[in-house]
Write a structure and sequence with these properties.
The complex is a heterodimer of chains A (301) and B (317).
Chain A: E1 2-6, H1 16-29, E2 32-35, H2 46-50, H3 52-69, E3 73-75, H4 78-92, H5 95-105, E4 118-120, H6 121-137, E5 140-141, E6 146-150, H7 153-156, H8 172-179, E7 183-185, H9 203-219, E8 224-227, H10 230-238, H11 240-247, E9 255-257, H12 258-265, H13 283-286, E10 290-291, H14 294-300
Parallel strand pairs in A: 1-2, 1-3, 3-4, 6-7, 6-8, 8-9
Antiparallel strand pairs in A: 5-10
Chain B: E1 2-8, E2 18-24, H1 32-43, E3 62-65, E4 68-71, H2 77-84, E5 86-90, E6 97-99, E7 102-103, H3 106-114, H4 134-138, H5 151-155, H6 157-161, H7 168-178, H8 186-193, H9 207-211, H10 218-231, H11 237-252, H12 257-272, H13 274-282, H14 297-312
Parallel strand pairs in B: 1-5
Antiparallel strand pairs in B: 1-2, 3-4, 3-5, 6-7
Helix pairs in contact in B: 3-7, 7-8, 7-10, 11-12
Classes of the chains: A alpha/beta (301), B alpha+beta (317).
């Protein structure tokens, strides 16, 4: 397993624990990552708001760089996944558009032939690393963790773009949580919007969504949430205090990034996974996890 | 035999909403509407639901079926029963319920009227037919098949949090006029749709594109209007944020979170965020103030220049 790794901007900045934990689990699970250090932002929808054609060209530039390496792209962000893959599918399905885009890319010495796939870490973990394999590697008992997944809209919709999960009944995250030994929490909000894209436009609406999803997860028994999107993480964790104010209720739900949850289960030291960076501390809930085999865990830490 | 569980509510009964269940033989090829008819004709004539054409064109029979809003007349029952073990039929969401599966679409229509859903042509009508170039007609592809069923509004997460938001159906109708070559009010329209609760309140959750039974793409239409509004220089908080984001990408190739927040919120906004900012700094999560440009930043700027030049020449879009 070897991928051209697209870390995303937030994943290496305010959520740099995402990048760090991705690299740690990749090493542990045998996923070789060649980082696309010269890639631009995927646009996250905002560059698209200003200039959609440019966002497609910039994403084609990233895809061309991966193609030159002969590798598919691995993302760790639902928003990056959507924007990169939407551009990818537009180019793959329209020969004229691909030719026009290549005419522009030629000016900087690049060409994209349409031979790259873009995959999110969640899909690679389930489909390629494999659930049975992950189950065997679990070193820490997560059975006291009721984990609510939070997909991020753009990882499950539109169903016509993403080929793996069911947009109405996404199961990848739940299957993964189960394989890691945790208990997945079933709730509607896991498919909904965290509110992040409109936090700076309508904070009240954004925080209402944010609070509703977390409160629903808690009502269904969640004591932890894990997300596959760092932009969701910003709202869910960094803005949780604001969400509490809007809801008029305490939420206190710790939010992990997907690879942090995986790392925790396979015995990577929580300090190395940078759990302390979260604003809502997972310390209390992490007391519930215990090494399955103390010898194995000691050896791993 | 399959269980069909249906939401029931009758304001005249004064009882709380509840669910009734029936066990029905579900044959391959039968739609959810077929089953509702069977219940209505042979089991309980008091069950209310809207329907008319049974051919997925009138838009009357939208309802929530096993957690997804769609037309009951073009939703096959058996695959859902096989997947979920039962059929769960509820009225559309984000709207009050009048009775059983009949949602009150009053607010839906109000939003549609609010966007002025009629052509506002130039004062001087052309002599003879109005010839619209194919290229301009193509722009309407993502909008013109809307049958006003309400499925998109039912699933809209932004509307769920903010009932004042115009919502996808009204906004895709708005786009239908903005993009119409014969309409002369595009600029005024974009100005009005850029007000709070308009195009910039879409959270891009993609539910509308996903559930539309006619493959209309309300979110794409909203995104195009945003781009048009920015191009026309129409100020709004959403445009300010998108431009701030874009500028930082042009500067370094990457998003500068610090600068985007700063420019987007301004001093007053930043002070309002101070309670978060302090915690963010404390946890070492403060974003970098200056972003080191990526190696190929000159290439990125060159690409932007080429794309903009092409656009000015009208080569793309």
């Amino acid at each position: 397993m070897k991928y051209a790794y697209f870390p995303g901007c937030v994943g290496q900045d305010s959520c740099s624990e995402l990048d760090a934990s991705t690299k740690l689990i990749a090493e542990e699970l045998g996923i070789e990552l060649v980082e696309l250090t010269d890639a631009t932002c995927s646009g996250a929808g905002f560059v698209q708001d200003v200039d959609y054609d440019l966002s497609r060209v910039l994403n084609a530039r990233t895809l061309a760089m991966a193609e030159r390496l002969g590798l598919d792209v691995l993302t760790v962000c639902s928003t990056c996944q959507f924007n990169l893959d939407r551009a990818n599918q537009e180019l793959k399905s329209d020969a004229k558009l691909l030719a026009e885009t290549n005419a522009v890319l030629a000016e900087v010495g690049l060409r994209y032939a349409g031979g790259v796939e873009v995959k999110h870490l969640l899909w690679v973990l389930v489909n390629e690393v494999g659930l049975a394999n992950l189950r065997r590697r679990v070193k820490v008992d997560l059975s006291d963790l009721n984990v609510a997944s939070f997909y991020g809209c753009q990882l499950i919709r539109p169903g016509t773009l993403h080929q793996y999960d069911d947009p109405d009944r996404p199961q990848y995250f739940e299957k993964l949580i189960e394989a890691l030994g945790g208990k997945p929490v079933d709730y509607e909000g896991r498919k909904k919007c965290c509110g992040f894209p409109i936090t700076f436009v309508n904070e009240n609406a954004s925080m209402t969504m944010n609070a509703n999803n977390m409160l629903e997860a808690k009502e269904h028994g969640a004591n932890l949430m894990a997300t596959s999107c760092p932009l969701c993480h910003i709202n869910l964790d960094m803005y949780q205090g604001r969400a509490e104010k809007v809801a008029g209720r305490r939420i206190d739900l710790p939010i992990l990034h997907l690879p942090q949850l995986v790392g925790l289960a396979i015995g990577i030291d929580p300090a190395r996974l940078r759990m302390k960076r979260h604003l809502v501390s997972p310390k209390e809930v992490l007391r519930k996890v215990a090494p399955k085999d103390p010898v194995a865990t000691n050896a791993g830490s | 035999m399959a269980t069909i569980k249906v939401y029931r509510y009758d304001p005249e009964e004064g009882k709380k909403a509840h669910y009734d269940t029936w066990d029905i033989d579900v044959k391959p090829g039968e739609t959810v509407l077929d089953l509702l008819h069977q219940i209505h004709y042979f089991q309980d004539p008091s069950l209310s639901f809207r329907r008319s054409c049974r051919s997925a064109i009138c838009g009357s029979c939208a309802m929530n079926i096993n957690g997804r809003t769609g037309l009951s007349c073009n939703t096959q029952a058996k695959p859902l029963v096989d997947r979920d073990g039962l059929l769960l039929v509820e009225p559309m969401k984000n709207m009050p319920v009048l009775k059983d599966l009949v949602a009150d679409m009053g607010e839906f229509w109000k939003a549609v009227y609010d966007i002025q859903p009629y052509l506002q042509p130039t004062a001087q009508a052309p002599k003879g037919p109005y010839i619209v170039p194919k290229q301009r007609m193509d722009l309407l592809k993502i909008a013109q098949d809307c049958i006003m069923c309400g499925s998109c509004l039912s699933e809209c997460t932004s509307r769920e949090a903010n009932p004042a938001y115009l919502g996808p159906a009204a906004l895709v109708k708005a786009y239908r006029f903005v993009a119409d070559a014969r309409d002369a009010a595009a600029s005024e329209r974009l100005q009005s749709y850029s007000e709070p609760n308009g195009i910039w309140d879409c959270d891009t959750c993609l539910y509308c594109n996903e559930v539309c039974p006619m493959q209309v793409k309300p979110m794409d239409a909203i995104m195009r209007m945003r781009e048009m509004a920015i191009e026309a220089g129409i100020p709004s908080q959403g445009a300010k944020h998108a431009l701030a984001f874009y500028e930082t990408v042009m500067e370094s190739g990457k998003l500068n979170e610090f600068k985007t927040a700063n420019e987007s919120l301004g001093l007053g906004g930043i002070v309002g965020q101070s309670s978060i900012a302090a915690k963010v700094v404390l946890h070492g999560k403060a974003p970098e103030i200056r972003k080191k440009p990526i190696e190929g930043i000159e290439d990125v700027r060159k690409l932007a220049e080429i794309v903009q030049r092409k656009k000015r020449k009208g080569v793309t879009k």
